[in-house]
Amino acid sequence: MSSPTSGFAIWRAGSTSLLLHTDNGWTTLSNRTPTAVPTGGGLSVAQSGGHVAVGVGTFDRLSTSPLLTSKNSGRSWDPTEVPAALASGPRSVGLRGETVTVVTRSDGGTLLAESGSGWRALTSRARLGLSAATTLDSVTWADRQLGWLTGLGADALVQTVDGGATWHPVKLAGPAVTTVLSPCGSGPIWSVPLVGADGKVRILATNDAGSNWHLGAAVAVTDNTIAWGCASREVWLISRDSQLLVSSDGGSTWQEVGRSPADVTGLAPTGATTGFAVTGQGGSARLYSVRLPGPNFVPVPLPDWINQLSDRADSG
Fold first, then answer.
1. What angle do CA 6, 12, 18 make, to 5 degrees?
2. Tens-digit pLDDT profile for residues 110-127
3. Alpha-carbon gap, residue 149 to 122, rounded angstroms
4. Is 311 within 8 Å of 284 (Cβ atoms)?
5. What is the CA radius of gyration of the chain?
6. Cβ count near 229 (within 10 Å)
7. What pTM was estimated for this model as a whole?
């Protein structure tokens, strides 16, 4: 979310995806999914103030991806199209201020920026000279100057400090890395999970906007889904044995605070002792409010229309 109480979330409902919005910590929510756009290929959303961009993953025989933008928090949408298929990463769309950027599948991951004359390429895996085994699939902007590309591979963390004019790989210390998840943070404080070939996650953290990085302690996680989230230096992570681990120092050290529900797929701390969690997918998905100590996972009732859409998609 863009704040502890407001923002967007992508909710998978069977074979389709919904774009949900809240202004009060999911006490009430609204459906901001663009109409007349099939979402079977998944959604990627980016927000900067009231400006929102949503990319639609390719499906069936489509070779390009629809893109929709809004200047009123998704109450209405302006459609356009990316001239290639979006990458499959969870953050294949990013906003650099109000400039839309996207990562496509071309050349192992190509970053495009929307301009008045269409789209222009900022960089790509091929242009950066990264390993052929690397795939870039996500883009994250801290502000108009600082940003990162991430994806699959031992060198899949690339940083810019000049708005995308130049890019430089971030050296990854420690055991071999297979996946770099999208950074989480704000201001100068950011956390980047590194998934190792040893089946463990380590947080690469910066307190000075990427000038210096520190590698944290290792945590064993499940192979299929890595559930984690951050709020400044507060980081939450689900371990392989379904324990909720909490770090108050950007992943340098971890505290085991108790068991979580089974099949947690997402975490979103909103502070040191509060947050949200999602379990399952489709019609079995559930939203929880989380409070520490405990931890206490309290189910958050969802509107009937979400459950009906999920059940309909699962049965169809």
1. 55
2. 999 998 889 999 999 999
3. 11
4. no
5. 19
6. 20
7. 0.93
